[in-house]
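User: What would this chain look like folded?
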Amino acid sequence: ACGVVGFLYWSAQPGRIETWVTQAEQSFWNMTAQHGFAVRDMFIYGRETVPLDAIKQAIGLKQGDPILSASVDTLKARLESIPSVKYAQVKRELPGTLYFRITERKPIAIWQHQQTLHLIDDQGVVMSNTNIKNYPQLLLVVGEDAPNHSAELIKFLALQPALFSLVKSAQRVGGRRWNVRLNNGIEVKLPEVDAQAAWARLAQMNAKEHVLDRNIVGVDLRLSDRIYFRLPSSNSEKNEISTQSSET
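Assistant: Here's the prediction, encoded as structure tokens.
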């Protein structure tokens, strides 16, 4: 009777049952490994820029570990937790082979936030483990919600290749619209609505009249029927040009 009571007392201790179950499971998995179901080979496909150490750490397995204890879904989730991994696929081939295929996130812009630079992809995800020095040509974007809107911005800016080649950075204003900064310092204020059409209008005008080569410091496209150019001589002085007159 004392033995039964002692067993019940031991079982009732906090964490004892969990520890016993964990040990029993580990013993079982070790037995399967001893019978040949152990990790022998691991193949990784699709890796280009993701650090190999980050992948190894996420997988958390080494040769000789029980392959049956490795949950395919868990391994997939671990890989996709790496900031620069977009998708992951995991395949287990018994008795001892694991195949991993990853799809990396592709940076589209550099986000400046609180005096720090971050790479972001087309879904606005911050790629914190990717070396920013490898992407000096990307557009610099600024603004709290800039990551979530950068893909849309870049998509329509790129529709005008000649004009897009002059773009240096873009700032998100009030969570509604963009100001675009060109390489020569000119600031282009885009409208909240129909920004793509306004950008195309400026591209057409510049192709015909080379307005961006003139002595101006700003272009305001926020009105649909006219364009304002700001001169360097005075912040308040503007030349007003209607869209209709610029096309004649």
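DSSP finds eight helices and twelve strands in the chain. If you want, I can go into more detail on any region.
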